[in-house]
Amino acid sequence: MKLIRLTSDTNDGRFDNDYNDEIIIPPNSKVALQSLAVLADITGLQINGDNEVIQFEVKTGQTRTISLNHETYDQHNHHLFLNDLQLQLNQGLVYTDGQTTANDQAPSELGMQMKVETSNKGKVNIDIANTKYTYTTANLFDTFKENTTAGINKTGTPMKLASATATGTGRADSKHGMASINPFTTGCGVFRVKLNTWVDDGSGATSTTSGFEFGLCNSKPDTWDLPDGMPDTVKTFAIRGFQPGTNYYMKTSNAGAFADSGIVPDTVTGNDPDSDILEISIQGKTIKGKIFRQGVAVADDIFSVNYDVDSAGIPVPLFGYMIFHGARDKIEIIDFKFTPDAFAETNLVDYESFEDLTAIGVGARPLAARSRNTNKKIDFLSESITSFLGFSNIVNIVKGVNVTFIAEELFISTIENGALLILLENLPLESYDGFKKGRKSILATVPNTDIGSRIVYEPNNLNYIELNNANTVSLRNIRAKLLYQDYTPLKTKGFSVLNILIEN
Q1: What confidence score (pLDDT) does residue 504 get?
Q2: pLDDT in tens, 408-439
Q3: Which helix (H) or strand (E) holds 142?
Q4: In angstroms, what is the C-alpha Rg of the chain?
Q5: Which CATH number applies to 134-368?
Q6: From 496's CA, which of 7, 317, 363, 411 has a CA 20 to 30 Å away?
Q7: 143 with 178: CB under 8 angstroms?
Q8: How far is CA 219 from the centre of its chain?
Q9: Is a pLDDT exceeding 70 seen at residue 105?
Q10: pTM for this model (two decimals)
């Protein structure tokens, strides 16, 4: 029997030892692990001025640049880094005002959302998805739920929405309304309505039984006391229209009341392409309210409010709502748009390219969404971030409408598989691996039950593996390496020792 001690002070989990004396291995010998002592380097990441910048593209040539928060991350708070990366990527998506008829100028980022997470295989995934945001009478209620049964009247192509009350006095309550089942996007999206019919019903300039309202709420619909009541205290961002001759009203917090925006409607009724378009959008770090009118060259901003995130860097979920207070013959909308969370609204994710063909009209008109099969790119610009996340390349490119960037290696900070592999690189053992679907020179699998960085292991029983060498082998060098279960290299620090036994 021979005892061979391998040592290493490298940081890559490799042992590469030369010996002055020949190591003679007789025919038909066997090898076993005696012990292992190693200190794993669960590498942390410090974001500072040297590596804070990341760039990405969803269309070649349209480079977006984001800056990460300065912080130090390790196995204890790695999730905060993923949250910050996701937040900054989403806030880096660009929404552009202004109408166009040229396809190449359409904003390819409207409707897009990005997600950063660790998959069930332990690798970081960065997803880019695009949600088709135009609805029909057939699929509206895949995303929205009526406050009361048959409270919304929806007809025609394109779809027209109005109250279930055909004529007469409207409703001050919220029964003839609807709320989104899933949250609003956290990427680049809009909640948009276009006026089709709007007639003064004679009930007063700001009558509670006239007009309409729509908005976003930072609480779930099941807390709104529906269908009987939806108090203003749950309405976070909203736009209210009373009569076509009354200024639009707006709301920017749960505590605040609806306030006069100072913007007078310029509506043209009868399904006219020049009718007013009202919009609440997420643009970077803000929620914006806008009115697009025929009589002005650019959209009117009626509010711009910071988009809140919680202490972990996760945006506060927002749910959409729409209420008709006036009767159907007095108020009706068309071209209803809502961009849901692309990763929650699976029924409406469109994996083919599409273009919103809504009539543009004249005056201030919003740009339409257009999804395309383009090269999507993420450039980490720094090896430190690339290595921390487990990507092999600093620049990564994937083509598609909806794409996923998948790290090649495990996200080291979250490894919980509790075991390491020891491979002998120049001693071909009779070992086989189902993961690699063939022969691999595995000496042993070493448990790490504490999921810690310091591993000191000595098996209770020596398990010998055959070398199956028909002839005598003479060696002056032995190489071994430590790997995680999926062959991700183990980063080490300090002095590592691997003892093996050879017998024949």
Answers
A1: 83
A2: 988 877 665 568 899 999 999 999 999 899 99
A3: helix 140-143
A4: 31
A5: 2.60.120.920
A6: 411
A7: no
A8: 20
A9: no
A10: 0.80
Nearest to 372 by CA among 399, 404, 346: 399
Which CATH architecture describes the domain 2-43+417-503? Sandwich (2.60)
- Residue 50 tokens read as 């040297």
pLDDT at 134 over 80: yes
Dist CA 287 CA 238 (whole Å): 11
pLDDT tens-place string over residues 145-181: 999 999 999 998 889 999 999 999 999 999 999 999 9
Domain boundaries, the chain: 2-43+417-503, 51-127+375-399+407-412, 134-368
Residue 104 burial by Cβ neighbours in a 10 Å radius (0-12, 13-18, 19+): exposed
Token pair 């019919």 is found at 197
Structure tokens given for 468:
């199956």
**What DSSP state is assigned to residue 426?**
S
DSSP conformation letters of 44-66: -EE-STTT-EEEEESSTT-EEEE
Residue 353: the pLDDT is 63
Place of tokens 């600093």: 394
Q: Are 429 and 93 in contact (CB under 8 A)?
A: no
State the SS3 of 94-127: CCCCCCCCCHHHCCCCCCEEEEEEECCCCCEEEE
Q: What are the C-alpha distances in Å from 388 to residues 44, 99, 126, 231, 450?
A: 7, 42, 14, 47, 22
pLDDT in tens, 344-393: 876 555 556 666 766 667 777 887 777 788 899 999 999 999 989 989 99
User: Distance between CA atoms of 212 and 254, rounded to whole angstroms?
Assistant: 18
